[in-house]
Specification:
The chain is of the alpha/beta class. It is built from 10 helices and 12 strands. It has an 8-stranded mixed β-sheet with strand order 6-7-8-3-9-10-12-11, sandwiched between helices. It has a 4-stranded antiparallel β-sheet with strand order 2-1-4-5. α3 crosses α4, α4 crosses α5 and α5 packs parallel to α6.
Length: about 325
């Protein structure tokens, strides 16, 4: 691996002001101090319940929104200094909804070649040929190029989205819940396709998901987020083999597994608190089955345990 990670995020924060008719009402702290490094050909999975800040983080990385604070580096240099066209060549995104992310009025080859039309000077015939090659790479037939999105299944539409994301030959793909809208059997096909493309094209993935069964299949590194903060981060084999944070343990206990006849721990209970009014101390303490008085008063710091980083008072 390179000495310098491809993508480095340090203390990233994203806050949304909430306003009512007569002024400021509060602040939603969607992302609060997230840091990580992504290496070439590595898959970093970001997991957590809905509302924990995963998509807000992805929007900041894709320049859809500006971070409130923190630093994003590309190969050691500030990413905000990179021209937009150059940025798009390095990082692309696969969206969650294969039904809503494709233009229903355009033919498939036009959808796939659109990034080439916007960012390059290629002729129309060259763009069409490039689109057909990308279609073949993701398992679509050439005759599919003249059809419209509504003529395809959900899995085929997601293949179209993947082909479009690959058009500019990026090095990093941000996958925002890319299989959550698909049937289980189709999920496996798309995950296997992503793994094949990673090996063939030396891609790195930032894989956002709430489904730990999916993450177990694809991730090298797992980062667990709760209310915008990292509570545990480490190699996937350690996270799944020996989870240390009670929240991670509860998430894994909630995941169906064919070989698990008895749960070792109760799945996570209750509702995630509002990010506009998070609990004091450890944000998870009101739902934690092993919380102690210290948890409600003092926020735990990330500490290194083996190859993982954990934010919990009970982990020594």
């Amino acid at each position: 691996m390179n000495a310098t990670p491809m993508l480095t995020v340090t203390d990233l924060r994203k806050h949304y002001p909430v306003r009512k008719l007569f002024g400021h009402f509060g602040t939603i702290k969607a992302v609060e101090g997230v840091s990580f490094a992504l290496e070439r050909k590595q898959t970093l999975a970001i997991v957590g319940e809905s509302g924990c800040g995963k998509t807000s983080l992805a929007k900041c990385l894709m320049r859809i929104e500006s971070p409130t604070a923190g630093q994003i580096l590309w190969n050691g240099g500030p990413m905000e200094a990179m021209p937009t066209r150059e940025f798009r060549r390095h990082i692309q995104m696969i969206f969650q909804d294969p039904y809503g992310s494709l233009n229903p009025r355009k033919k498939v080859w036009n959808i796939i070649s659109e990034p080439l039309h916007i960012n390059t000077s290629m002729k129309k015939s060259e763009r069409r040929q490039a689109a057909l090659e990308l279609m073949s790479k993701v398992g679509l037939r050439p005759e599919h190029g003249n059809r419209y999105p509504h003529m395809f299944s959900g899995g085929q539409r997601q293949r179209i989205g993947i082909a479009r994301a690959l058009a500019l030959r990026p090095e990093v793909l941000i996958c925002d819940e890319p299989v959550s809208a698909l049937d289980i059997s189709i999920q496996a096909q798309i995950l296997n396709l992503l793994l094949e493309l990673q090996n063939e094209l030396d891609l790195s993935y930032l894989f956002i998901s709430h489904d730990l069964a999916v993450v177990r299949h694809i991730a090298d590194i797992v980062m667990v987020i709760y209310l915008g903060k990292v509570v545990e981060q480490g190699p996937a084999k350690d996270i799944f083999g020996s989870p240390k944070h009670p929240y991670t343990q509860s998430l894994i206990a909630s995941t169906p597994h064919i070989k698990r006849f008895e749960r070792q721990q109760a799945p996570v209970r209750g509702e995630i608190p509002s990010p506009m009014n998070p609990p004091s101390g450890c944000a998870f303490h009101k739902r934690c089955p092993v919380a102690i008085p210290q948890c409600s008063n003092e926020e735990p710091k990330l500490q290194k345990i083996g190859q993982s980083w954990v934010s919990c008072h009970l982990v020594k």
